[in-house]
Amino acid sequence: MARAIELARRGRYGAHPNPMVGAVLVKNGRIIGEGWHKEFGKAHAEINAIKAAGSRGGPGTRGAVLYVTLEPCSTRGKTGPCTEAVIAAGIKRVVIGAADPNPANSGKAAGILRASGIEVRSGVLARESRGLNPAFNKFMKTGLPYVTLKIAQSLDGKIADFRGRSRWISSAPARVETHRLRAEADAVLAGINTILLDDPSLNVRRVKVGRQPAVVVLDSKLEIPAGARVFGSSRLILAATRKAPTRRVKRLNRENVTVLVLPSGRHGGVDLKALLGELGELGISHLFVEGGGKVVGSFVSQGLFDRFMFFLSPLLIGGERSKSSVSWPDALNAANKELGINIGLKEIRSIGPDLLLEVRPVRKE
């Protein structure tokens, strides 16, 4: 099962919004086939492991034991049910890591397999297997995207000086890691100020991906310029409010552009809870937020994030009017009895000369 978990991670950039899954086939005490879910819409891990066993001219899969990190699917989607393939392969025993949180599949595979005479054991390295797919798990349970926030900041908590200069706070290795993080997500989000100041593409580079993530722009009044680079993305979602001119909404809605007209939030921008609900309806299970301090601060202050990635660079920007990495209105602090918002540190690692801090929200039971 540990080997299956290792294999599953190879699907980091291609499997989503499906889960990362790994599978190992064992017969007579040796591995005869390995597989993982390589790309959304393509064969699942179990199928790839069965095919690998057959391609080696070995003893065949009949009587083998299958180790798989996630309960095999039992319904027909873009591919056929894995339970049917397992039965057809003559596998005698299936060892499962984690249960499938998808209500369409959850708990069904074991019954189907046992009815065909296959022995089933579940819950082996369950915690580690579940930990492979936090975005998929949340999306299946709530219908809402898993939200990762990212900021590159100086040691004194700044993301730009008073003139807006920010290149380059983070190192080249940190920027490559940012592309890896983008590649894990279904959509990348930024605010209109980032679009107006930097005109980023917000696509994945330096990492091979089968498809680019969608781009989401918070743009309450639809101020985005016609020549903005994000219009080159395969799927652009503009999140506006009723402040946006109706004619501009109609003009911007086209083949690869979706305009969502949403309620206004507490401070006049897009209501983020409503946005997450709409993105979930569009099938986006993992949202990567790369906005400025105010955008990131809005997600943090409303408790709408699941993971926060801080790139901390050995740089001091100083200045009285430099931009803070996380910002929200002082009125929110005035209303809070306690100082700040507590977060839990999960991991610290070096990325070139920078530190990457991964933190999670501390949620009360």
Description:
With 365 residues, the protein is α/β, with parallel strands linked by helices. Helix content is 27%, strand content 25%. It has helices at 2-8, 45-55, 82-88, 108-115, 126-130, 134-142, 172-184, 192-198, 246-252, 272-281, 293-301, 330-335; strands at residues 22-27, 30-36, 65-70, 93-98, 119-122, 146-154, 158-160, 187-191, 214-218, 236-240, 257-261, 286-289, 307-313, 323-324, 343-351, 354-361. A nine-stranded mixed β-sheet has the order 11-10-9-8-12-6-13-16-15, with helices on both faces. The chain has a five-stranded mixed β-sheet with strand order 2-1-3-4-5. The longest helix is centred in the middle third of the chain and has 13 residues, at 172-184. The two termini are 31 Å apart.
In short:
The protein has 12 helices and 16 strands.
Strand content: 15-25%
Largest β-sheet summary: 9 strands, mixed
Number of beta strands: 16
Poorly predicted regions are: none
| Helix content range | 25-40%
Structural class: alpha/beta
From the spread of the alpha carbons, the general shape counts as: elongated
Give the number of helices.
12
**Helix/strand order:** HEEHEHEHEHHEEHEHEEHEHEHEEHEE
Average pLDDT metric: 92
| Biggest sheet strand line-up | 11-10-9-8-12-6-13-16-15
Distance between the termini: 31 Å
- Radius of gyration from CA coordinates: 23 Å
Please outline the helices and strands.
Elements: H1 2-8, E1 22-27, E2 30-36, H2 45-55, E3 65-70, H3 82-88, E4 93-98, H4 108-115, E5 119-122, H5 126-130, H6 134-142, E6 146-154, E7 158-160, H7 172-184, E8 187-191, H8 192-198, E9 214-218, E10 236-240, H9 246-252, E11 257-261, H10 272-281, E12 286-289, H11 293-301, E13 307-313, E14 323-324, H12 330-335, E15 343-351, E16 354-361
Parallel strand pairs: 3-4, 4-5, 6-12, 6-13, 8-9, 8-12, 9-10, 10-11
Antiparallel strand pairs: 1-2, 1-3, 7-14, 13-16, 15-16
